[in-house]
Amino acid sequence: MSAKGTPTAAGATPAEPAPVLEAWEVFRQEKDGDPMRHGGSVMAPDAELATHYAREMYGRRQESVRLWVVRRSDVHDLDDADLLQPPLDRSFKKPGGYVMRDKLAAARAQSGQAKPKARSK
Fold first, then answer.
1. Which end of the chain is more exposed for a tag (fewer CB within 10 A), N or C?
2. pTM above 0.85, yes or no
3. Regarding the domain delimited by 19-76, which CATH topology (the fold level of the hierarchy) does it fall under?
4. How far apart, in whole angstroms, are the C-alpha atoms of residue 48 and residue 58?
């Protein structure tokens, strides 16, 4: 008999509670040099089993050279517009942020030179 007075089979232990399954996100790299891409998710009670499941699902046919397995609760979503805006103006780092045409026209006007004609082939 168990501690609660219910009969159990000889040698049997009372049932332990089932482990809690967590979602784990799997990111995979198809070949060296490629970016990591989200492959999917697996449900597992711990990191060891999540890694095993990810290897079985995304690596057994050699379709991946690298896997990242991350607990879904550890992934942080940055959707706040204030967090995504840079604190300083860095438009000079963008190709369209520094327009030479206007600066050249101003320099030509200051020096009194006309715009050179296009070369013919």
1. C
2. no
3. Ubiquitin-like (UB roll) (3.10.20)
4. 15
